Automatic annotation (TrEMBL):
SMART domains in UniProt: PGAM
Lineage: superkingdom: Bacteria
Protein name: Alpha-ribazole phosphatase
Species per Swiss-Prot/TrEMBL record: Litorilituus sediminis
Signal sequence extent: none
Length: 255
């Protein structure tokens, strides 16, 4: 059973595409950018662990979108680690405005959507950023649904990892999730008990491209390792023997 689970959340690099609101729209990251992130990640890991601990990942998970998957596969090849795709790791769907270049945003036709038909696309987007929990973009995934999807994914993943540890002799487990800024922000809000409906969260908690967030779930009592029974105590954040520790928040790997 595990005494410690360490999870790195890595945001993909900057997309090689016109500025836009990229949610589920696929966009590529330049190969040079991905290689730079992999190099810096390796250096970061080397600095993070002493000689008594290995920095390799036991498992790598990725969003299915190319901007994440290409980076995850590169890391997987370098570390000889299998890469698993999780559809629930993908970014929020921004609907009709998803992937539309900001230069072309005003060409979007809102006439088919009575609630917003009188608004300009830019003013609608600004209203969304000012209060994303209350303003829904046309055909988009509501923020409440996005939050629910990410937290369910997180809890299911932890439960799966802990279940695997029942027959595992290793006391530690290291995971890498290659995903998106919105996904990482929702996970942090969940762990740190932040109000995900508060608009200020989205303007103050910046998750830069190519940044790394590290979360450690540990058992303070070596005689009481993480298992499927006491994992629920971790999720309630009320256990004296288990806790979350956020060791890094959006630490930039590249400038």
């Amino acid at each position: 059973m595990f005494n410690l689970i360490e999870i790195d959340l890595l945001r993909h690099g900057k997309v090689d595409a016109p500025p836009a609101l990229y949610g589920v729209t696929d966009a590529f990251v330049a190969a040079e950018e991905n290689h730079k992130i992999v190099t810096k990640l390796s250096q970061f890991i080397d600095r993070s662990y002493d000689n008594s601990s290995t920095g390799h990942y036991d498992e790598i998970y990725t969003s299915p979108l190319t901007r994440c998957r290409s980076l995850a596969q590169l890391i997987g090849r370098q570390t000889k680690t299998e890469v698993k795709t999780l559809s629930t790791l993908q970014e929020m769907n921004f609907g009709l405005l998803d992937g539309v270049s900001f230069d072309e945003l005003e060409t979007v036709d809102l006439s088919a959507f009575p609630q917003v038909s009188q608004q300009k696309p830019w003013s609608l987007l600004e209203a969304f950023w000012q209060n994303p929990a209350q303003v829904n973009l046309p055909l988009a995934e509501p923020l409440i649904d996005f939050n629910r999807r990410i937290i369910q994914m997180w809890q299911q993943l932890l439960s799966q990892v802990v279940h695997q540890g029942v027959t595992c002799k290793n006391k530690q487990k290291k995971l890498l999730l290659v995903c998106h800024g919105g996904v990482i922000r929702m996970i942090l809000a969940h762990i740190l008990n932040l109000d995900w409906t508060n608009p200020s969260l989205y303007s103050t908690l910046a998750i830069a491209n190519g940044s790394l967030t590290r979360i450690v779930i540990s058992s303070l009592n070596s005689d009481n390792p993480l298992n499927s029974e006491n994992l629920s105590l971790v999720e309630s954040s009320s256990s004296a023997s288990l806790h979350y520790q956020v060791k890094h928040i959006a630490t930039p790997l590249i400038s």
